[in-house]
Amino acid sequence: PSAAPVLWREVLHTSRNGWRLVSLLWKPLPHSQANGRVVLYNVNCQAENDQILSDYGSCRKLQHANTSCSLPLPPRRCSCSLTASTIAGMSPEDRVWIQGSSETETPPPAKLSATPLGDSSMEVRWTSPPDLPLSGFVVEWFAVREKTSSILHWEKLNSSCTRLVIAEGVKPLERYTVSVKALYGEQGAGKNITLHVYTREGTPSAGPNVQVEHIYGSSVELSWSPVPVELLNGFIRNYTLLYTTKHRPANSE
After folding, report:
1. Where's the Fibronectin type-III domain (predicted)?
2. Distance between CA atoms of residues 160 and 223, nearest Å
3. What's the gap between Cα 236 and its chain centre?
4. What is the C-alpha end-to-end distance of the chain, expressed in Å?
5. How much is the pTM?
């Protein structure tokens, strides 16, 4: 292969002693860069003090169909590299750096905005952190769901890019979390800046489940549970309470 697969990471969990469960994510090489059929991927991780890792989790013996794996990493700053191989040889490597558990996160980008371009795409724009040496940006987005898990989508960009048109995995009436991280070379990724967005909003598919909590003579105390985000189809602006008594028109609050 003439190029490395683009590599990214997601920290799934951090334990009390600072160990992290990290998911490594990559994109398959296009045919023009693979120059053949990729038969396997190889992951190599190391800690800042050259600590040898004994547990590579699911990141061993990766086949051509794999696009992710996970492994535990120690509290120190770590880096992981990924290569792809065909029967003719191995690609160059791409590498990601993961900050140590106790390190202070570097600044995020600023002024993040997202503009719908239609039902199935949006344009994301941001501003670079001032006067800091950057190696790139990563844009992440996923559908916000309560009942089922969603897929994390991501794109790694060079440091001159401050906009991206997102079209992968985007549908109307679904809420998305969009975030951007700045990359600082061996310092790893900085804090993220995040927003929520719909490409198109609609009316909710369900109303809240209302319950009577107490009745006090001429007054009543009500409560309701939030509507699941999958059924909201947009951002809730207000609730309206309708109430009536026999033979009288309804009142609203």
Report:
1. 108-202, 206-253
2. 50
3. 23
4. 65
5. 0.90
